Amino acid sequence: MTSLVSYTLTEGILTITFPVSDEGLLSLDACDELAELILAPPAEARVLVLASMGEQFCTGRDRTAATVDELPREVDRLVAVNHALRHSRLVSIARVHGDAAGFGVGLAALCDFAIATPEAKFSFPEVEIGLAPVLVLAWLPQLVGRRQAMRLTATGASVDAGEAVALGLVTQVAEAGELDTQITALADGLRKRSPRVLAEIRDFLRVTDQATETQATEMARSRLVVGSLRRGRD
């Protein structure tokens, strides 16, 4: 079977490129391949760069379920991609060269870093087709706050890259001509860091997303002890 998703691996930097349709939509088959590769990358990989083959980054995903019975499986395939991005052992960077909408915003925002061009627009248009984007709402309030999550999903408002940085959807804006240079510099710097330390940072941020201050502090206390003991073993 021909692979839809392609990748290159150079000096520990794994660049995964996914296809989108002319409308910017990601197929469910490509979602399956993305989830598998992100969760089980080549052993030499240290940093993940996620990029799109289309003119836009990703403006959503295909809706293929024809019956009620098929809907749970479709949703599971989408959840698998989100799970992979959150649980991968790799530090991830999204290369957002064009618009992102709905599920596509999730691909960018669930990466550890996302660098976008100034022209990129971000939106959650599901409300326009009578759908509450609950899969997005599973993570969006933790990232941008409850009120901004409500504004973005209830109105379908489009925000530019600058506002996306302010909201926390992306981490940096770079002109199109500088996008790859900025991504390479970031990825190169990250791959030189201890993979154990980076994995510990990612894991701690994930498990404390919804923890209370007391719970987070107690987890930090125990992990700092263990991390200090491991420090000399890298």
List the helices and strands and how they pair.
Blueprint: E1 6-10, E2 13-18, E3 25-26, H1 28-39, E4 47-52, E5 60-61, H2 71-87, E6 91-96, E7 100-101, H3 103-109, E8 113-116, E9 121-123, H4 134-137, H5 140-144, H6 146-155, E10 159-160, H7 161-167, E11 172-173, H8 179-191, H9 195-207, H10 213-230
Parallel strand pairs: 2-4, 3-5, 4-6, 6-8, 7-9, 8-11
Antiparallel strand pairs: 1-2, 9-10
Give a description of the structure:
The structure is a single chain. By secondary structure, the chain is α/β, with parallel strands linked by helices. It folds into two domains: 6-190, 2-enoyl-CoA Hydratase, Chain A, domain 1 (Alpha-Beta Complex); 194-230, no CATH class. Helix content is 45%, strand content 17%. The protein contains ten helices and eleven strands. The strands form three sheets. Strands 1-2-4-6-8-11 form a six-stranded mixed sheet, with helices on both faces. A three-stranded mixed sheet has the order 7-9-10. The mean pLDDT is 89. InterPro entries: ClpP/crotonase-like_dom_sf, Enoyl-CoA_hydra/iso, Enoyl-CoA_Hydratase/Isomerase. GO terms for molecular function: catalytic activity. Belongs to the enoyl-CoA hydratase/isomerase family. This is Enoyl-CoA hydratase.
